[in-house]
Amino acid sequence: MFCMSLMKSENRAAFKAGEPAYLDRYPMSKAQRQAVLDRDWNRMISLGATSTTSRSSSSNDHKSFQHVAAIMDRQHPGGNTRR
Asked: Does a structural domain hold residue 65?
């Protein structure tokens, strides 16, 4: 639900304005929440996200799917960071 919410521009703006507060709106485990805040894409998937829903979260950071896939494959020097 969280990742799908980012399809709306007003939700993306609210998330950017205060990520922890925005995440409080959704039922997430502490591990899921931390994975989102850390942009730990592999952890998000291991906790139940799909690559499609992870893509909506990454696009909010203006990262291409290719960029995120490289991070997930550990081929990118900025692994799990928001550059």
From this structure: yes
